[in-house]
Amino acid sequence: MPGTHRAPKRSRAPRGKRSARHAAAALDKVCALALDMEAPLNDVENLIQALRFIGYGMEAHHADEGHPISSLAWTAVQRLDVVRDKWDGILNAARK
User: Fold this and answer.
1) Cα 83 from Cα 76, distance rounded (Å)
2) pLDDT tens string for the chain (96 positions)?
3) How many angstroms separate the CA atoms of 70 and 74, rounded?
4) How far apart are CA 51 and CA 34, in angstroms?
5) Distance between CA 24 and CA 94 in Å, rounded?
6) Residue 11: its pLDDT value, please?
7) What was the pLDDT predicted at 38?
8) Residue 9: what pLDDT?
9) For residue 8, what pLDDT is reported?
10) What 3-state class would DSSP assign to 14?
11) Distance of alpha carbon 55 from alpha carbon 64, whole angstroms
12) Rounded CA gap, 74 and 49, in Å?
């Protein structure tokens, strides 16, 4: 009875190296997405700052309508700062 021949086993990279490559690829994707967000984030920041200045200008000319505009813009600036901090955290994590 002839012996059975098995196909030779393929050599595989150790699990650690494969996981590291996968993690690096995932990090590259996250960094690319974060960098794609930079321009729209800057645009939104500029628009909000413009609204703030419009509101302050209206308030300076004693127009009561300026206060809600500047207050809303200030709230948006605060929330945008949180987004900006998280965005910076993503980029800093990617650099390490």
Assistant:
1) 11
2) 566 666 666 655 555 566 778 877 877 887 787 778 888 888 998 998 898 888 888 888 877 788 888 888 889 989 998 988 988 888 787 777
3) 6
4) 25
5) 9
6) 59
7) 83
8) 64
9) 62
10) coil
11) 9
12) 8
The DSSP 8-state label assigned to residue 63 in this structure reads -
Q: Is 62 left (phi over 0), alpha (psi -120 to 50) or beta?
A: left
Phi/psi at 13 (nearest 5 deg)? -70, 145
* Amino acid letter for position 17: K
| Contact assessment for residue 37 and residue 87, using Cβ atoms and an 8 Å cutoff | yes
**Whole-angstrom distance, CA of residue 31 vs CA of residue 85:** 15
Q: Minimal CA–CA distance to 67: which of 52, 88, 83, 50?
A: 52
Separation of alpha carbons 66 and 75, rounded Å: 14
Residue 76 tokens read as 């948006």
Q: Which amino acid is at 37?
A: M
